[in-house]
Amino acid sequence: CFFIFSARLEDLRVKLVSEGLVNISYVVVNHQGTYSQKKFHLLKESVSDYITVYQQDEQQADVWTTLNGNKDDFLIYDRCGRLVYHLGLPYSFLSFQYVEDAIKIAYCENKCGNCSYTEPDVDDICENITKKADEKLAEIEPKPSGQHSHHHHQLHRHRHQH
Question: Which residues form the Selenoprotein P N-terminal domain (predicted)?
Answer without folding.
Answer: 3-162
